[in-house]
């Protein structure tokens, strides 16, 4: 058993500049030691060697998580944490940074308390401060949709993607709550994601109390796809099923769609009030559809718009009239993007805008 260290456990969230932080820390591990901080070389997966994914993914897998395709190593949690203990035992630094956004997966398991308690038990010999960056959920949703669609398999439409995404992932409330419950609220540093580049790295170093100066300039590690071509790129990929499966928005009950967005936004606002700079959620059902319309608009210059989707969005808008007139407006205007000369669509858009004004 190693001597007690002060561990800063950076758990993510996804799409909060974690790759930039990990790239910086791993590339400057030798300089960090000059400032009394260890960024261990152990527990790093072969396919993602800048972070400590062996710790998070081996433990998440033990609690029912299916690791991402890039992680094909069969290291057990016992072996991963044994390597960590051996490394810490031989390190003179008393402050340690561990980083992996996959640690949030522990809080999204069927029994999140058991998973996070397991992590706490494995780090029990040390003083642990959890560092958790949160991101406003509409911004997180857009960024995650962009990221997932970099892969070879296309997703469903943006609103369906929203309906299928784990609520905990977007609201982030349960992630914070379960870590706060097991490590102590006072030991969870909650930071609103608000910076990029060098400013983001400087903020992280400040949060963990490291005096090492950040670089004067830092490039983005992960570039987003251009919004103007995102939908066209999504539809150009080989896909199972028919075109309708990937172009017609099957969200079911619009009232359920509306409630889901409101519920996620409310849960995020609860956790955001504990952050260094609280920022309210911008996620609404109306905002989801408005972003979808923006993704569709560049397709007007192509022949890829599906007229069935115009009819579908029109019908959903009519059903939304008794739920939320703003949502009805957004749905009808999305239909208008596809069918700009639709008489009923245009009449209804004018009617909704008049009511909202």
Structure description:
The protein has a 5-stranded parallel beta sheet. The protein has 17 helices and 5 strands. It starts with 5 loop residues before the first strand and ends with a helix. It has helices spanning 18-27, 29-34, 53-62, 77-89, 112-122, 137-148, 158-164, 167-171, 173-183, 197-208, 227-236, 243-247, 254-272, 285-296, 307-320, 325-338, 343-356, and strands at 6-10, 37-38, 95-99, 127-134, 188-192. The longest helix has 19 residues, at 254-272. It folds into 2 domains: 6-208, Rossmann fold (3-Layer(aba) Sandwich); 227-356, no CATH class. This is Sulfotransferase family protein. It comes from Paracoccus stylophorae.
Write the topology of this structure:
Blueprint: E1 6-10, H1 18-27, H2 29-34, E2 37-38, H3 53-62, H4 77-89, E3 95-99, H5 112-122, E4 127-134, H6 137-148, H7 158-164, H8 167-171, H9 173-183, E5 188-192, H10 197-208, H11 227-236, H12 243-247, H13 254-272, H14 285-296, H15 307-320, H16 325-338, H17 343-356
Parallel strand pairs: 1-3, 1-4, 2-3, 4-5
Helix pairs in contact: 5-9, 14-16, 15-16, 16-17
């Amino acid at each position: 058993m190693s001597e007690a260290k002060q561990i800063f456990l950076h758990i993510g969230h996804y799409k909060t500049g974690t790759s930039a932080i990990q790239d910086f820390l791993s590339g400057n591990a030798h300089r960090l030691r000059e400032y009394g901080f260890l960024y261990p070389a152990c527990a790093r997966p072969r396919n993602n060697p800048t972070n400590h994914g062996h710790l998070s993914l081996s433990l998440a897998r033990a609690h029912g998580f299916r690791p991402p395709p890039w992680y094909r190593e069969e290291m057990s949690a016992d072996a991963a944490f044994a390597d960590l203990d051996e490394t810490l035992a031989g390190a003179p630094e008393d402050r340690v940074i561990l980083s992996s956004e996959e640690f949030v997966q522990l809080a999204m398991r069927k029994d999140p308390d058991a998973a996070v308690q397991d992590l706490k038990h494995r780090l029990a010999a040390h003083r642990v401060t959890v560092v958790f960056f949160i991101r406003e959920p509409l911004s997180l949703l857009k960024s995650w949709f962009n990221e997932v669609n970099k892969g070879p398999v296309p997703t469903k439409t943006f609103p369906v993607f929203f309906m299928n995404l784990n609520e905990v992932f977007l609201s982030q409330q349960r992630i914070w709550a379960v870590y706060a419950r097991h490590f102590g609220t006072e030991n969870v540093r909650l930071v609103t994601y608000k910076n990029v580049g060098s400013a983001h790295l400087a903020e992280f170093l400040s949060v963990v109390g490291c005096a090492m100066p950040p670089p004067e300039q830092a490039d983005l590690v992960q570039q987003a796809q251009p919004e103007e071509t995102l939908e066209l790129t999504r539809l150009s990929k080989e896909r199972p099923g028919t075109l309708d499966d990937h172009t017609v928005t099957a969200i079911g009950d619009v009232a359920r769609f509306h409630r889901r967005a409101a519920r996620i936004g409310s849960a995020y606002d609860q956790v955001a009030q504990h952050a260094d700079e609280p920022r309210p959620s911008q996620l609404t059902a109306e905002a989801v559809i408005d972003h979808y319309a923006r993704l569709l608009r560049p397709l007007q210059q192509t022949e890829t718009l599906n007229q069935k989707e115009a009819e579908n969005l029109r019908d959903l808008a009519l059903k939304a009239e008794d739920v939320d007139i703003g949502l009805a407006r957004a749905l009808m205007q999305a239909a208008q993007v596809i069918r700009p000369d639709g008489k009923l669509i245009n009449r209804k858009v004018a009617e909704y805008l008049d009511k909202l004004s």
